[in-house]
Amino acid sequence: MQIVTPYLLFLGDVPDALAAKTALGIVDWRPEWCVGQLRLPGCKADAGVPDMTIAEAKAAGVATMIVGAVNAGGVLPAHWVATIVAALDAGLDVASGLHSRLADSPAIREAAERSGHALHDVRHSSERFATGKGAKRTGMRLLTVGTDCSVGKKYTALALESGMRRAGLDADFRATGQSGVFISGRGVAIDAVVADFISGAVEWIAPAAAPDHWDLVEGQGSLFHPSFAGVSLGLLHGAQPDAFVVCHEPTRSHMRGVAHPLPSIEEVIALTITCGRLTNPAIRCVGVAINTAALSDSEAASLLRETGARLGLPAVDPIRTGVEPIVAEIVRLYGGSDKPS
């Protein structure tokens, strides 16, 4: 789906900032797209952009109202419906990352039909994907992979986009999750795609491109996670990455939601290369991104130094240190060509 910018961020009446993490993430990475926010009475979150009415947002050039809040179960609260209807009637598209489909509400569906404006359910793409073909396509691709879920794969890919562009490289973030779609304005929530079409959907997200163009594909799950490995594998085959970065959270003893132990970074590198060679025999690891938020400055520095030396790869924390060492490694290996040196 293609979501038209700029945005009005609808926060509803959520009780805290965590419940508005979708909207706050968009502001972090695409502040230039965020014209304002709309909050209902009692809202305890603030995205740090001007409060606006729907009429003010329309006058300011807003194209899409983003339902930028989440709740348990991803359901649409009944008392939010009137605001969404008003946005459609005012001439805005509406996009949501909730599990509930916007059009499942008769009032919202009728407003969309009446106004002719689009409803985007980011978790439920209307695109029809082909099965993956695995044929080599032009352009360069990097995939972020993880030792577990929720270890910073999206953040790392976005940080690499910024770092690579600063280095003069032609690079674009490619979203595979709901928040990433809002941040990029385009993409597919891969975990909602029927299994047979996962790799084909990723081929659609990152199609053939100019030889020196980099698509930075947001990873999902982990090849070692018993719940989500199927999504991770389909994503790996469809991305056909030339390069990958392993993302890791060092304080975990087991993977989220299951009792399985966390794999080592070395195990993730080895399995990613083994599986990834099916669609790109030249796949290689170019760095490690470690989330050191739970560590002191000295502990973080020591861990990054030790990991880099052990693996012979740049090891960074995208927040603490930035990703420039990984960008430098990409430039060293690939330069501006479509072949590694």
From TrEMBL:
It comes from the Bacteria. Residues 129-327 form the D-glutamate N-acetyltransferase-like C-terminal domain. Residues 40-124 form the D-glutamate N-acetyltransferase-like N-terminal domain. SUPFAM superfamilies: P-loop containing nucleoside triphosphate hydrolases. Gene3D superfamilies: NAD(P)-binding Rossmann-like Domain, P-loop containing nucleotide triphosphate hydrolases. It holds the Pfam family DUF1611_N. PANTHER family: DUF1611 DOMAIN-CONTAINING PROTEIN, GLL3100 PROTEIN. This is Uncharacterized conserved protein, NAD-dependent epimerase/dehydratase family. It comes from Kaistia soli DSM 19436.
